[in-house]
Amino acid sequence: MDVFDPKSLQPLASIPVADDADAILYMPSTKLIYVAHGDAHMATLIDPEKRATVGNIPLPGKPGFPAIDFQSGLLFQNVEDTNEVVAIDVDRRSIVGQWPLGPCDGPTGMAIDSEQRRLFTVCKANAKLVVFDLEKHRVITSLRIGGGPDSVAFDRGVHQIYTAGKTGEMMVIQQDGPDNYRVLDEIHTHYGAHTLTVDPGSHKVFVAYASLLAHPRVAVFSPAQ
């Protein structure tokens, strides 16, 4: 893993980690960086101040993306090849819960609504969004979304969920309540535009485009007024 100066973008250090590093997340509560490794079936914990590995956490399969539940302090991690989600206590370096995500096949991107105790996961193999109850530890509903989904973002200010997939469809889903969801819009973007994030202040959605035939770029979408 490479470390860069955020102002000059010059490289500062290189930290050895396991192969197939596929997701990275900073945990403010522990001041550690969590790196998930797909093929290695594990996660690495890095101290950014020391620029060194300080621990490893074995995982039960190939990890997708993680997310933090700020209410419980636990880190939740998708496991793609077993169609499960696990809860991790980073301080203890251990898994403290493990639950199925059916009907999800191939869970990848994840977002969490800590306030209403809901976890959102997109499923790349069968193009679904599933909603998981963080208290009862079960899937409560699922919705059909665009093909090859890889990322999902939740804007708690407007109670909307955004998903992006490799087939070039961005879905906008309205959260009417903890257990009630509906598709508001389906926006055609570009094949391969499967990474997005949302700015909770402006409520704008940023979608990254990557193509062998065009320069990488970012599209910005504003919510309807």
Give structural attributes:
225 residues; 21 strands; mainly beta; 4-stranded antiparallel sheet; globular
Task: Please tell me about this protein's structure.
With 225 residues, the chain is mainly β. 0% of the residues lie in helices and 57% in strands. It contains no helices and 21 strands. The chain has strands at 2-4, 11-14, 21-27, 32-37, 42-47, 52-58, 63-68, 75-79, 84-89, 94-100, 107-113, 118-123, 128-133, 138-144, 149-155, 160-165, 169-177, 180-188, 195-198, 205-209, 217-221. The strands form six sheets. The chain has a four-stranded antiparallel sheet with strand order 3-4-5-6, with no helix packed on it. It is globular and about 45 Å long. The relative contact order is 0.09. The model has no long low-confidence stretch (mean pLDDT 94).
- Helix-strand topology string: EEEEEEEEEEEEEEEEEEEEE
Helical fraction equals under 10%
- Beta-strand content: over 45%
Gap between N and C termini = 41 Å
Using the alpha-carbon principal axes, give the shape: globular
Question: Helical stretch count?
Answer: 0
Evaluate the radius of gyration: 17 Å
Q: Kindly state the number of beta strands.
A: 21
**Secondary-structure-derived class:** mainly beta
Spans of at least 5 consecutive residues with low confidence: none
How are strands sequenced across the largest beta sheet?
3-4-5-6
The biggest sheet, with number of strands, parallel, antiparallel or mixed sense and barrel status, is:
4 strands, antiparallel
* Mean pLDDT across all amino acids: 94
